[in-house]
Design brief:
- Helices cover 56% and strands 10% of the residues.
- By secondary structure, the protein is mainly alpha-helical.
- The protein has one domain.
- It starts with a helix and ends with a helix.
- The protein is built from 9 helices and 4 strands.
């Protein structure tokens, strides 16, 4: 059985359901972000999607306006660019919830390799040629294993070097294994694991 049609159908059903159920939370988070300071509610950034097609990923804004232009692409726990409410949103992965819109649009799937910026995709172009045959996702095995990535990198003397030479290669390896073996059952299992991890903080 080809898992692709079933995967897309579940993505549409789950993203619609999630957006409806979570709409009150979205409203509260939006209000908290506006009360915490100036700037937009949402953060949008270009990522590389399926078949290397660029798209804009949606997140709740957790950093001060224009922060991405004032430091590295990688953020770590304790980064001075992160707002007070942003730190809380990131701890419980609430900032990722607007990606339900990306899933509904078809830019992303619930489960799939996390989408990266062009800079890092170019470093591992051959691996991403295989990886990006499927839609990137909100979560995958690498996301679960490295759910505490920001804390780990905060202890590094060189965030970007450790990310590109240690963490990202391992994440790509895990994501490639997922891409070769995914099915509806494994996707549902990964979604449940992600919810448990996020709720545990």
């Amino acid at each position: 059985m080809n898992p692709k049609p079933a995967k897309r159908l579940l993505d549409i059903l789950f993203s619609l359901t999630g957006l409806l159920i979570l709409s009150p939370l979205f409203a509260v988070v939006a209000l908290l972000i506006k009360l915490d300071g100036d700037g937009p509610v949402f953060f949008r950034q270009e990522r590389v999607g399926k078949d290397f097609q660029p798209f804009r990923i949606y997140k709740f804004r957790t950093m001060h306006p224009s922060a991405e232009n004032k430091g590295p692409l990688i953020t770590v726990r304790g980064d001075a660019r992160i707002t007070k409410i942003g730190a809380l949103l990131r701890k419980y992965k609430i900032d990722e919830l607007p990606q339900l819109l990306n899933v509904l649009k078809g830019d992303m799937s619930f489960v799939g390799p996390r989408p990266e910026v062009k800079k890092y995709v170019r470093l591992f172009n051959s691996e991403y040629k295989k990886l990006l045959k499927i839609r990137p996702g909100i979560t995958d095995p690498a996301s679960i294993k490295y759910s505490d990535e920001e804390r780990v990198l905060s202890q590094s003397g060189n965030w970007e070097e450790d990310y590109t030479k240690k963490i990202l290669p391992e994440k790509i390896k895990l994501s490639l294994h997922y891409a070769d073996n995914y099915n509806v059952i494994t996707d549902l299992n990964l979604i449940l694991k992600t919810i448990f991890k996020s709720s545990a903080g």
